[in-house]
TrEMBL record:
Record GO terms (molecular function): DNA binding; DNA-binding transcription factor activity
The UniProt record lists the keyword Iron: no
Domain HTH lysR-type stretches: 2-59
Keyword Transcription belongs to the record: yes
Alphabetical list of PANTHER family matching this protein: TRANSCRIPTIONAL REGULATOR (PTHR30579), TRANSCRIPTIONAL REGULATORY PROTEIN (PTHR30579:SF3)
Protein source organism: Thioclava indica
Name of this protein: HTH lysR-type domain-containing protein
Domain of life assignment: Bacteria
Record-linked SUPFAM superfamilies: Periplasmic binding protein-like II, Winged helix' DNA-binding domain
Family: Belongs to the LysR transcriptional regulatory family.
Entries under Pfam families matching the protein: HTH_1 (PF00126), LysR_substrate (PF03466)
Keywords annotated in UniProt: DNA-binding, Transcription, Transcription regulation
Length: 305
């Protein structure tokens, strides 16, 4: 008979593709994880993994077992919540992956409010400038800047948001006039490292007259800090401007970008009431916070200097 604890270990190895990484996630040593997998394979009379120099990959039998193990995981999580005594509240651990701009400027306060309403909930925010692999359960859900078109995923639009050219007041006071897009050629531009743009929606500078990015980072938050330091002009999330004192929007009538955040979940999770309830709270919280912060940012606009 299959045991949930065995399936839990199977899922950890399937997602980590390594005994040692799975062991760290489970707080078990790698040898114990290996013995438990061997025991499960013996009980099932099937090899669940194919070992190679790259790690542990699922075999054909492992692929067949995976959706059943994930269903058991969801059922176990649902049972825990139902029996926890926290009626109507979310409990347990949830991990969200997000691009660093969203993770730095929006998710902390949004998730804090959700946690205040659900004291038994533990929320983990993973901020990385890349796309997350939900199949490997790097996160329970992820926020992206473009709508995925492939994979077994459920996709939900969360909110639109806006970006504008911005600079620090001191930089503008001590630099060449900036009255139209053509003037950008005389300013140091701040943006993404071109060959590290992981999503086409982040390729902003095609919409400006700028020719060269003089300072670059793969992090939107680092770019905002560069702008705040007076290093030049960059395209900044409106929702980040209230966190950067002295930074103002410039040429807002000429350069205005609109993008969207999308919430993606593994297709098998659509039956999880727990994840659905969290997604609803997250979506409403993000919409409210983007609206609040963008109103504050609009008050910092300078049409030209």
């Amino acid at each position: 008979m299959l045991d949930w604890d065995d399936l839990r270990i199977f899922l950890a190895v399937a997602r980590a593709e390594s005994l040692s990484r799975a062991g760290r996630a489970l707080k078990l040593d790698a040898a114990t994880v290996g013995r438990r997998i061997a025991r499960l394979e013996e009980e099932m009379s099937a090899k669940l993994f194919v070992k190679s120099p790259q790690g542990y990959a699922l075999s054909e039998a492992g692929d067949r077992l995976l959706p059943h193990a994930e269903a058991a995981e969801q059922a176990f999580a649902g049972a825990q919540e139902e029996l926890s005594g926290a009626a109507g509240q979310l409990t347990g651990q949830l991990r969200i992956g997000a691009p660093d701009g969203c993770a730095n400027y929006l998710l902390p306060q949004v998730c804090a409010r959700i946690s205040d309403a659900n004291p038994g909930l533990e929320v983990q925010i993973v901020a990385l400038p890349r796309v997350f692999n939900l199949s490997k359960r790097e996160a329970d859900m992820a926020i992206t800047v473009s709508r995925p078109t492939a994979g077994r995923l459920t996709v939900q639009k969360l909110t639109d948001y806006h970006l504008h050219l911005a600079a620090h007041r001191e930089y503008l006071a001590n630099s060449a006039p900036l009255t139209c897009k053509a003037d950008l050629r005389g300013h140091r531009m701040i943006g993404y490292i071109p060959d590290m743009i992981f999503d086409k929606e982040l390729d902003y500078f095609a919409e400006t007259e700028a020719q060269v990015v003089g300072l670059a980072s793969n992090s939107a938050s680092v770019q905002t800090r560069m702008v705040q330091s007076g290093a030049g002009v960059g395209i900044v999330h409106d929702f980040a401007i209230p966190f950067a004192p002295g930074v103002v929007r410039v040429l807002a009538d000429e350069v205005s970008l609109k993008r969207a955040f999308w919430l993606i979940r593994h297709a098998d999770d659509r039956r999880s009431e727990r994840l659905t309830r969290f997604a609803e709270a997250l979506g409403q919280g993000l919409r409210d916070e983007v609206t609040r912060l963008e109103r504050l940012a609009a008050d910092t606009t300078l049409a030209g200097l």
